[in-house]
Structures
1.
Amino acid sequence: MNLNIFQITVRETGETFPCKPDETVLAAMLRSGRGPFVCGCFGGGCGICRMKICAGEYEKVKRMSRAHVSEDDEKNGVALLCCVRPRGDMVITKLS
Amino acid sequence: MGFFGTLRPGLVQMRVLDLDKTLDFYTNVLGLDEVGRTADGRVMLKGFDEFDHHSVTLRLADEAGLDYVAFKAACPDTLEELKAKTVAFGYQVTELPANGEQPGFGKRYSFKISTGHTFQIYSDVELAAKGPQIKNPDIWTTPPRGMKAQRMDHFLLYGPNVAEAERFLKEVFGMYVPEVCNAPDGSRVAAWITGSNKPHDLAFVEYPKPGKLHHLGFYLQDWRDVGDAADLIAINHLKLDIGPTRHAITRGHSIYFWEPSGNRIEVYAGGYTAYPDNPQRVWDFDQLGRGLFYFSGELIPSFLEIVT
């Protein structure tokens, strides 16, 4: 087990992809080619990578547009995956 | 008689999530010059080949996107004429005082159009302290940086009721519509609109949410500069959307990418010379891929669907 690589699991499909602690979850998803990746601006502005983090520790490394993630959303684990890095294994799920 | 009402889109105010990083992009990568800061911390910028005080302001905000766009009217009389016509068209107009929220700019009139975007018009603006030379002028004063963006060129706006916006710009601003794209039922999907010889000063795509920005476009000299911009996108780890490519619509050479706050930017060169008496070019929706991306002929979902 490599302690420096975290596993991100997509709840709907059970598929996983590795994510390094110094990369965003979206960058890892794009690199692995796994997961429901749709990516846009990678800047927290466009909102296309909005998902819910169901489990796991993470840190926000960029501001997320309030047009897509409200304060309440943020408290409830909704995030733009281009703006978060893992601090452990994570489980993510799609939002309607 | 030259231009009919508006000379060009002369000012945009952009919302950014990270002012320092986004400003670094605008100055060191895109190549605009910082003109100064407003009392409330917004940053004023201009291209090296622009004469007016500034053309872009960046405002730190909690969401990305566009605050407003402003068009320069040919003279103060034209400004008043455009204002009166705007009121007669049915839009509520607010007057913004000279040298207020936009230093260097004269009186502006502000109003919201059918697509949910705030438009402004003005006629007076101070010349920039550091504009292009005018006496036996050299091609530039200091070497252009980065992508060497010469000037702000155009923007593509997404919102509802493009047909009304198009009618407003024709009837009130005196613009014309060199190119359009229609749905199979004949309804308007997109319109490329100009008040000059540029193939577009602005464009619209029909979209249910109001007030959205698809991209802000800046003018480069030529196809080679577009290629060099692609290198700078890679070197600076910016996220590419599509290109370098050519549009059949407008005929411009182009590349699209996102700045650090997530607003899509286009750098663009060439394009045909438009004239108001030329017949309108019409695209069927099923040919739009070829119209937008002439080499591949394929639409990409990110380009159509992602806006700020």
2.
Amino acid sequence: MPDRDDQLAELGRLWRDQPTRSPNVEEDQMLTQVKQDARSFDRTTLWRDARETIAAIAVLAFMGWRSWSEAGWLPKAGFAVATICMLFTITHMLRARRLHGRVGDDASLVDRLQAELHKLEVQAELLASVMSWYLLPIAVGTTAWMLALDPPRGTGKLAVSLMGLTVVFGFTGWVVWKLNQYVLRAELRPRIEELQGLLEQARAGQA
Amino acid sequence: MKPKTPLETRYLGLIDKNRGRIDRLCRAWARTSADRDDLRSEIQLQLWRALPSFEGRSSEDTWLYRVALNVAMLSGRREQGRRRRNETWERTAAAPPPEPSPPESLERQERLDQLTEVVAALDPGDRALVTMVLEGLPHAQIAEVVGITANHVGVRVHRLKQKLARLMAAPKEGIHA
């Protein structure tokens, strides 16, 4: 249809001929700013990853130090259980991150949207199952370590300690779990739906 | 002044050559001049970050549009857009002309404003396509940027021509893509 083609060509010319905004900063200033932003972005990412690692190492170091300053094998065994539980949590998290399937900044729109969607779905799955891979192992590991460090004498005292720790960890876990579910419901799910919509629009009918 | 590295020279050349394109893309994806400045900075940042890994497997245009459109589609523009849905779309001119413009120039400006509103009202998938069509990119290249087949681009562009014609003919307050 030549009319529509002509109109599109005319609109294209109108679009391309619109005034270009003259840069309000000098070339060198712009480059400095961009490089500064890039460094700050890298630093933020590095610090985010480092924070998690430092926290895990600090907790383990403290537990190890406390366990080895006590005599006998029981505190060490408790520390071993806590370490295994923490390693399980870290491995689960790292494996999930590896599943993200990273794509470059210059991937096609569809590939990029798919990768972002997959990343969010993995995060949503992690939040939904936070009880089994994070809260429970940490509660079990910490309980084992605390009981081994200062074992209660007698069955009655052991039962009371166990109940006390269960209540404390149960309540803390419940609060953390509720917060995670809130983030999942209020932030991740809507973002996933938004990305699904964008992906559908980018493909728009392609089988 | 410190001499520029080859990467810096290449980057500045790229930005200089594509300033108009990046500017127009920002106008299509961001509502106010402040949002456009943010988007422009974000695109420039991602281009800088992505440039060292650009190996020339695709053309420079394809690469640039991929990076820029990925930023536009995935950055926080949508949230800002939602918050400011009731605000009017800022006019396309970078600054108002200081002296009275001749009538044909005013008419042209009005038509450009209308086109910008029409483009901005399209859903993000169509908007990405239309911005590239208006820039004169061939279907094969658009297909590479989006990640769909060239045939599919052809079908969608055909539909978009009809949509654009309808929306450009509609009175201004009736623009709803």
